[in-house]
Amino acid sequence: MNGNKVPDDIKPFYDRFNTETPTSPEEEAARAAEEAEEGGKKKKKGDKKAKKAKGKKGKKDDGDDKPQVTKIGTSEVVTKFDDFYDEWKNEWDQKDESNNQEQKHDEEKTRDDVMPSIEDQLKNDVDEMIKMELENMRTLSGVKQKKKKGKKKGKKKKKKKKKGLKLPGYKQIKDMNVKEILVTLINNNIVKKIPPQKLTDFMGEFNYIHTMLDDITKIPYDPSMALIRQLVTEYIIFPLGSELVRLRFPEDVSSYLFYGPAGTGKTLVVRAIVHETNSIFFDMSPINIDGKYTGKKEEEKLVASVMIVAQEYQPSVIYIDEAEKVWAAKKKGKKGKGAKKKKSDPSNPARIKKAMLKWKAKFITDKTRITIIGCTSEPEEGSKKEFKKFFKRAIYFPFPDYSTRRLMWKNFIMTYKGQIRADFPLSTLAHISAGYSAGSIKKTCEKVLTEYRVKHQEQRPLSLPEFIGPLSLCSNTMDSQYAEFQEFTKNITGFKPPAEDGGGGDEKAPKKKKKGKK
């Protein structure tokens, strides 16, 4: 500050270091003499060159055709190599590296290389702080900053306001930072870390005999475990894990429904998808969101938060277990048994249904790597119409076939440190366990192969009756349940088997007219 005057800018502070020191008269005279000598030398050289050129022209006229040799100096690449070599020789050739067996970095060299950039950064930060202090001092002293002269600008055009997403719940979170929304979802246990699984843990083989014997034109056969792995890999894991595949995959595969008996590996496959694609996991299951976001239109805020964070941190998987409760079927004849829950009721799982449908339709596109996966063990309790409307694909997880059951028994017994001898009836055990899920087989092995039983396997080998008792206590898929799953498969896929010809073809017999009284 000169004369208690606030400076306008910090630039004069740096300009004072760039001023040259004034030279004396003697130094100026010496410099002028040197410039005059250099100019005389240049003139002499120019005269010599002109004479040589004239002489060469004369020689050419005499007819002496000698080949001209153009001299080329060192190229730019060679010069760079020389510079690199000199740098290495000066800095690294004489450096003692005998104690640096791990080849750690040189701290002094690193400090010398990094320090200039750090100093520049600190200088810029300090300059910004000084500018702020100058502005404050100018404001306190009542001095206005001088306006820079420039061309007069025309009238500023009014900027159009950016239109936000017209989707339910977006207005409530549009002013929030994405990280803040993510922290809120983590605190509410919507975003969670799940145990890692591999898709190979979903064990099973192709059922070749089943595909050969069954007539697919009449009844769609149950998919094998290997076929389910293939479908999940091609339709979900590849587009979700690779951005390039997602852009080139033309079909809309944003939502899937996994249905089948309990314990058939639906949740395991979801965990495998999250692990294989390194996705962020959102749990929107009814049991998980119960009692959360209970205010007015808070369910819309929940769905909007999940979708915005899912897009920001994609790939993302939105998981909805017990999907039959969210898209529940309308029950008839039960009006007097209980009052119907309102959609805004925080305990009603169907409150997110409407918002989810709108966000899925308008927000998830071919470029977004977001997949919604719903799981259900009781698909007959849900609305088939709404299932078909929301989910683009449905994958049936049946109970394992004979070859898969035999493989499961063998692997689970060995997992729990059991020893299978040559005379152990593994095939019989696979036949007995028909209709039981993979979860039931795993629980049976866990109950039988206790720590005490594993220690005494040498004295008393494993036998078939040991497994029959615990297996009978597990849930089994009955024929009636299997028929319900088959019926749901026909409805969700739109499968219509051809009508069997019963002698009269497809034509219906005409109805007999009732005879009236005479």
Short description:
The chain is mostly helical.
Describe the overall structure.
The chain is mainly alpha-helical. Among the domains are: 170-328 and 344-396, P-loop containing nucleotide triphosphate hydrolases (Rossmann fold, 3-Layer(aba) Sandwich); 402-476, Helicase, Ruva Protein, domain 3 (Orthogonal Bundle), CATH 1.10.8. Helix content is 48%, strand content 5%. The chain has a five-stranded parallel β-sheet, sandwiched between helices. The protein starts with 10 loop residues before the first helix and ends in a 25-residue tail after the last helix. Mean pLDDT is 77; it is low at 56-63, 150-162, 335-339 and 500-518.
Topology:
Blueprint: H1 11-15, H2 25-62, H3 76-93, H4 107-141, H5 170-173, H6 178-187, H7 208-213, H8 225-241, H9 243-248, E1 255-259, H10 266-277, E2 280-283, H11 286-289, H12 298-312, E3 316-321, H13 323-326, H14 353-362, E4 370-376, H15 384-390, E5 393-396, H16 402-415, H17 426-432, H18 438-448, H19 451-455, H20 465-472, H21 479-493
Parallel strand pairs: 1-4, 1-5, 2-3, 3-4
Helix pairs in contact: 6-12, 8-10, 16-17, 16-18, 18-20
